[in-house]
Specification:
Layout (H helix, E strand, L loop, with lengths): L5 E5 L2 E8 L2 E6 L27 E3 H6 L12 E3 L2 H19 L4 E4 L12 H13 L4 E3 L5 H10 L3 H5 L5 H7 L2 E5 L4 H4 L11 H11 L2 E5 L13 E3 L6 H14 L5 H7 E2 L1 H9 L9 H8 L3 H11 L4 E5 L1 H4 L5 H13 L9 E4 L11 E2 L16 E3 L3 H6 L4 E4 L2 E4 L5 E5 L3 H4 L3 H8 L4 E6 L4 H4 L3 E4 L8 E3 L6 E5 L12 H11 L3 H5 L4 H17 L8 H7 L1 E3 L2 E2 L4 H8 L13 E2 L3 H5 L24 E4 L15 H5 L7 E4 L1 H6 L7 E6 L2 E9 L7 E3 L17 E2 L24 E8 L15
Parallel strand pairs: 6-18, 7-15, 8-9, 8-12, 9-10, 11-25, 12-13, 18-19, 19-20, 26-30, 27-29, 29-31
Antiparallel strand pairs: 1-2, 2-3, 4-5, 4-20, 14-24, 16-17, 21-22, 22-23, 26-32, 27-30, 28-29, 28-32
Helix pairs in contact: 2-20, 3-20, 6-8, 9-12, 9-13, 9-15, 12-13
């Protein structure tokens, strides 16, 4: 489209881009002290063979019409014109809407497709379904934080207040003496933030803190979960046992009278019940250091010494997303808060409790004075919902009741799912079961830039532009820069913006004005920018007009230094500034949660044995964590993502001693398997992982040798073939895909080339 560099932005950073032949030249934003290498994934993405170039319809659906079909994921596609595609989608939306109403339609999206605030896919698809069809069955929470986002409001406050407005990195650098990071502080996670991230500062702040003397302790099976700049300590526990470890630490603090009883009495409720549970007064089982040592794999003496070293220090306790993405994931999140409270730390500069520090670039940053407006999603005419990670349960069990956060709900019977901006075959668990679930639908409609596994299971695939091919505004509540996202290239093939697609469908459904409000894309951008001007003007802050902003490409916004505002005010005066909990205090015991009568999540935090544990058939823990070379599964075909693979396959890390016992050498093709399926990967031997654990990142595009197999073999390395699809507990029903158990062996079968990026027939 243009030969001069233009400003653009992604979830992992802002940049100038220039198209030169088939490649993009990327120059990171000059104000970023530590630019993300993920920018390299754009170099050859625009015209990659995996892109969807035309509207496509699955042959079985086109020939036989809507209905359940087990050929999904293993069928041919037929190219159609946009006019034909619009007609097919319109007719199907009318059919399902007339016959089943909004409760027969699921609006699926995950919102990560673009850093632009207008082309936010989740907002677009939800606005479309609300304004044209009267609503849809929605999902709540996220795969990343499904447990914590439900739990935290019961015990301390809204997750955004704890995570986004928690203790700041600046405070840590200045005041923290000990940072205990359950799940670590991996920079691969904090280099990404929804809406954009113009300044990657975590590495620098950790280095400042370490040089001042802050002691960082990363509690994780992986040494890489803490950067070298932190000069930290690595504490490796058995996966999933952090809750037991914290209970053991608390038992030592109680026994040696090292708890801050004055803080506990004034600022918390439920400490006596918690202490009674730890002492074993409830059931005769003391949760002491010796008890915890048996579960966690470290000595009782180590646990006791660890507890004593926390006393009298300015301690920050943070719990990563990873810990609550597992069975009983609510418990370590809750116990992290209890530990901070027992030490009397919440509300002290650089001390206390924060959730998910390091999990996203938003967390630990300062907030903007005002936020950039969002696209209104309209009013949903029905109140039918599922926790986001229960999609397979819903599609496989219509009418079945389920528990969620004190409510008894029923799975709706979904006939049509409309997906834009997401790839459930990346973030969901037990992919053979997910495929079976999608086969129950009458129709699956997907907007996609490329032939992901989700597109390959769809009935109608509408080619969408990628972020580089459209104009938008990039910004985040914790990023002091706002960016004009100017188009770098013309749309690939016949691809269209999601907004253009929805506008035409809304016109055919007679609801164009309700959807567009008379605005095209540029009209919405100008409208939102004018709203920002008004919000800032109320604070006597003036910014340039839209045209000047668009020309200069970047705008610096005023910020507030109000990290920890809720908990700081609470500590200063708990009566005048109570927490938004039923008691107004930190709830170590929650009468509300207790009233739900969930055995797997009672009224105070507990240790519950997971159903998944290593055994002779599956002796290894598998950690399925976030990748370092891409955001989730986005641009898996990009240069940087491919550079992290070996011969096109994902890399699995394991300890040399474990490898030796299985006759595995570095670089061998290995097979990871359990009752749900098989995965191939390239072996990487390293002592930076604890024994008995293997690590395979998520995000490799699902590439089954036989898509219809009940126990599929993914030759590319997608660990969600293996992970278990169950809720964390009856309270939150969050995703439990972080850890599972597997067997590992050197692969002896035929090694066929990865075909994930080759379009279907």
């Amino acid at each position: 489209m243009t030969q001069k560099p233009v400003m653009h932005s992604a979830h992992w950073g802002a940049f100038h881009a220039q198209q030169q032949g088939d490649r993009l030249t990327i120059e990171p934003f000059k104000g970023d002290p530590d630019p993300s290498p993920l920018l390299q994934n754009f170099h050859t993405a625009l015209n990659h063979p995996a892109r969807v170039s035309r509207p496509m319809v699955r042959r079985g659906w086109l020939e036989n019409g809507p209905g359940a079909d087990d050929r999904r994921g293993n069928d041919e596609y037929v190219a159609v014109s946009w006019d034909e595609a619009y007609a097919l989608v319109t007719r199907e939306l009318q059919r399902v809407g007339d016959k089943y109403g909004p409760q027969g339609i699921f609006g699926g999206s995950y919102g990560w497709s673009s850093a632009g605030r207008f082309h936010h896919a989740q907002s677009q698809v939800h606005r479309f379904l609300n304004t044209t069809l009267g609503g849809y069955v929605r999902s709540v929470n996220s795969y990343s934080s499904g447990s914590a986002s439900v739990l935290l409001p019961h015990i301390v406050g809204d997750m955004n207040e704890i995570a986004r407005r928690g203790v700041s990195w600046e405070e840590i650098a200045q005041h923290s003496e000990i940072v205990v990071a359950f799940g670590g502080l991996a920079l691969k996670n904090s280099q990404v933030a929804s809406g954009g991230l113009s300044e990657h500062t975590e590495r620098g702040f950790m280095q400042q803190a370490a040089e001042r003397g802050t002691r960082f302790i990363s509690v994780s099976p992986l040494q890489s979960d803490l950067p070298e700049e932190a000069q930290g300590e690595w504490l490796a526990l058995r996966p999933g046992t952090d809750a037991a470890f914290i209970l053991g630490v608390l038992s030592v603090l109680i026994a040696e009278q090292l708890t801050d009883e004055a803080f506990l009495a004034r600022y918390t409720v439920g400490w006596p019940e918690m202490a009674a549970y730890i002492r074993g007064e409830e059931d005769g089982t003391p949760r002491d250091a010796a008890w915890a040592a048996e579960i966690c794999g470290v000595s009782a003496a180590f646990i006791s010494d660890f507890a004593r070293q926390l006393h009298g220090k300015r301690v920050l306790v943070t719990v990563a997303h990873a810990l609550q993405r597992a069975e009983n994931g609510e418990q370590p999140v809750w116990l992290g808060l209890v530990l901070a409270a027992a030490l009397g730390q919440p509300g002290l500069p650089g001390g206390g409790y924060t959730y998910a520090l390091g999990a996203l670039g938003h967390y630990g940053k300062h907030h903007n004075l005002v936020s950039f407006p969002a696209l209104p999603q309209g009013k949903n005419g029905i109140d039918r919902l599922i926790p986001v990670a229960r999609i397979s349960d819903m599609l496989l069990n219509p009418g079945k009741p389920f528990d969620y956060n004190g409510r008894r709900l029923t799975y709706p019977h979904i006939r049509l799912a409309y997906w834009a901006g997401g790839n459930p075959f990346h973030h969901h668990q037990d992919l053979a079961r997910l495929r079976q679930a999608f086969c129950q639908l009458d129709t699956l409609i997907v907007h996609e830039i490329a032939w992901t596994a989700s597109a390959r299971h769809a009935d109608i695939v509408l080619p969408a532009t990628m972020t580089l091919e459209r104009e938008d505004i990039g910004g985040a509540p914790t990023d002091r820069h706002l960016f004009a996202m100017q188009p770098v290239a013309q749309p690939f093939g016949e691809a269209k913006d999601d907004y253009a697609i929805f506008t035409e469908l809304a016109r055919r459904l007679g609801r164009e004005e309700a959807f567009t409000e008379g605005r095209d894309t540029r009209g919405w951008l100008q409208h939102h920018y004018a709203q920002l001007q008004q919000k800032l003007a109320a604070h006597q802050v003036e910014i340039p007009d839209f045209e000047k902003f668009w020309q200069q490409g970047v705008l610096e916004l005023p910020q507030l230094k109000d990290g920890g505002r809720m908990i700081n005010a609470f500590r200063a005066d708990p009566e005048a500034s109570p927490l938004p909990t039923p008691s107004g205090k930190i709830e170590i015991f929650s009468a509300t949660i207790a009233s739900f009568n969930y055995e797997n999540c009672p009224g105070h935090p507990v240790w519950r044995e997971p159903q998944q544990k290593p055994n002779p058939d599956h002796p290894f823990w598998l950690i399925a964590n976030q990748p370092a070379t891409r955001l989730h599964s986005q641009l898996d075909f990009g240069d940087y993502s491919l550079s992290g693979k070996r011969h096109g396959r994902e890399v699995c890390s394991l300890h040399p001693a474990d490898a030796a016992g299985s006759g595995i050498n570095d670089g061998d093709i290995i097979e990871l398997y359990n009752a749900r399926g098989h995965v191939l990967a390239s072996a990487r031997l390293t002592e930076t992982i604890m024994r008995g654990v293997v690590q395979l990142p998520t995000g490799a595009w699902y590439d089954p040798v036989d898509p219809t197999a009940l126990r599929p073999l993914c030759r590319h390395g997608n660990p969600n073939v293996l992970t278990l699809d169950i809720g964390t507990s009856s309270l939150a029903q969050g995703c439990s895909g972080q850890i599972t158990v597997v067997q590992v062996r050197k692969y002896r079968g035929e090694v066929t080339p990865v075909q994930a990026f080759i379009p279907p027939a």
